[in-house]
Fold:
Amino acid sequence: MNMTLPAEFSLIARHFKPLAAPGSLGLTDDAALLTPPQGRELVLAADAMVAGVHFLPDDPPETIGRKLLRTNLSDLAAMGATPLAYLLTVGLPRGTPDAWIAAFAAGLAEDQREFGLGVLGGDTVSTPGPVHLSLTILGHLAPGTALRRNGARPGDELWVSGSIGDGYLGLAVLQHRLPMDGFLADRYRLPQPRLALGQALVGLAHAAMDVSDGLLQDLGHLCRASGCAARIEAAAVPLSPPAAALVAADPALRQKLITGGDDYELLFAAPPGAAPEIEARARAAGVAVTRIGRFGAGEAQVSVIDDSGAALPPGQGGWSHF
Amino acid sequence: MNMTLPAEFSLIARHFKPLAAPGSLGLTDDAALLTPPQGRELVLAADAMVAGVHFLPDDPPETIGRKLLRTNLSDLAAMGATPLAYLLTVGLPRGTPDAWIAAFAAGLAEDQREFGLGVLGGDTVSTPGPVHLSLTILGHLAPGTALRRNGARPGDELWVSGSIGDGYLGLAVLQHRLPMDGFLADRYRLPQPRLALGQALVGLAHAAMDVSDGLLQDLGHLCRASGCAARIEAAAVPLSPPAAALVAADPALRQKLITGGDDYELLFAAPPGAAPEIEARARAAGVAVTRIGRFGAGEAQVSVIDDSGAALPPGQGGWSHF
Structure:
C-alpha cells in the first residue's frame, strides 16, 4: 500500500492493515502476491464511487465501503464466480476525521467476514474533491463456465431475483422525498450480492447480468449482447411489501421502479424446461426468483405489457430501443 | 465496463474499447475473465492519481494515463514481475472534452504496445472534483521468487538504477521554478519502469523496492522491513547530466534530490560478491546501476556521508529515524 499522504494520514495504514488478506504482505511491499486457485479461471471487475454521485455525502461511513464492495461482489455473482480478494484505492479530502476512516474500515471488515475475502493492496490519496473510492475485485470459477450476457435465445424465460425498485425508493427515502422506511434505506445503502444464486445458475442459465442501472436499461444491454428481443409483464415484476404498498397508492410509480437503478439483483435467461430446477436451486440459495417475461426473435428491443396485455408506451427510461 | 455516466459520456466506451485485452469480453460484461499463466504466482498493485496532487492539471492528457500505468509497472518491476494486464477507473468532471479523452486513451494505447499489456475492465464515472484515476495492475513471476523489501542484510551493498532527482527537478521545471528542460520534464511525466532490470535481479538481489517517495524515505522503509541500518555516500548517488549541472551551481540542491520523489528507479540490496553479475545483467537490461552505500547492523537508520566522510545532519527529509 503506497502512502502518498502527509504523516497525519499514516493513521489510515493502521485502519487498513487489519483488513489485509494473506498474500498482501501486510500491505508493506510494492505489490501483493497471489497464488491463483489451481485449475480455476479468474474473474475481475472494477468500479468507482464518488460522494454525491453514487452515494450520499452523509451516508454512514460504515456503509459506504460496503456498498462499493457489494456492487463489485454483485458483478462476480452475475458471472457465477466465488469471491477471492480485492484491491482498494481511497481518495479522501484533507481533514477527514479519524473516526470517519475507522468507521469506513470497520464496515469493510464486517463485509469481509460475511463474504469471505480480504484486501490485497491499494493506495490512499488526498483529494481536493469529494470522497472517491475505486475497488477492483477478483473471483474465480471453473474454466469456461462463466455466465455471460450474450447467451439468451428466443423462447428463453426471463427471470429476476429478489425484488425490484427498492434501491430507487431507498434513495428517495434518504433524500426525504418519501417517509422514512428502514428496509428501503438499507436496500439503497447495502445491496445484497446474489453470490449463491449466481453460482447455482452456472450450467443452467443461458445468460445473466446484475441490475445496476435499472431493469429495463440493463435488460436492453442483455438483449443487444444476445441479439434477441424481450417482453416483460409489468405486473409480474416482484416488489417488496413496502414497494408494493407505494405502488398501490400510486400506480404510475411502477414504471419508475423498473427504470430506476441500484437493484443489484440478478437478471437471467433460461429455457422453460429449467424452471423447476431453477426454483429448487434458488430455494437452496435462500433467494426468491420470479419469471417476469420471455425472450423472442427479432431486433434487440424490450417491451412492457400491462395487465390487459397491452404494450405500455415507452417512457422516460426509453425502453423500446437501446 | 460499467458505464454510469449520462449518454454524452458513452463516447468514452469508444475510446476505451480499442485498449481491451483478451479476456476483457470487449468490456461489455459484468466482469472480465483471465486464465492465470500456468504455474506462476500473480503480483498485484493498485495506485490512484488526482489532478493537482499527483500530476499537473495542465499536463498533456497523453502522458497522464501513461504516468499512472508506469508507476504501477514500476511496482511490478520492484518485485521482479512481468506485466499481464490492468483495470482502470476514470473519474472525469462533466464537460471533459472528447479530445481530452481521446488523447488520454491514445497515450495508454502507446504504453500498452510498449509494455505488452491491455485493459481487462474498469469503470468511468462523473465527478464534481478534479480528474481522478485509479489503476490496478496484474503481473506474474515464478512462485517464491518475488523480490521483497525485507531481505537486506548487514554487509549488503546498496544499489540504485538510473539517476536520482530528475522527477523532482522535472516538477520544478513544469512549475516554472527552473528553466525549461525537456529531459527533466519528461522524467517527471513519463517514469521509466525498470522491468527488465527487476526481472534480472531475481535470485541475485536480497531486497528491492522502487523509489517513489524519495530515496531517503524509501530506503528508510527498506531498512525498517529488513531490520538493519544503511549508509549512503552522497557523492555516489547518480545524477543525470542536467541534474549534475544544477548541483554544480547549487551544492545544497543535492540534499533535495535525495529527498524528492517521483524517481521510479529501483533501490536494491545485494551481497558484495554479486557486483560483477549485477553489472552484467544491468548492462543486458540496458539500465545503468550504481553502488551508493552499504547496509549495516543496528536499528533501522539511514545516514548520509559527504565527500570527507562526515555524516550530514538530518535534513527536512528526516533521514535519521523512520
In short: Chain B touches chain A through 62 residues (CB under 8 Å).
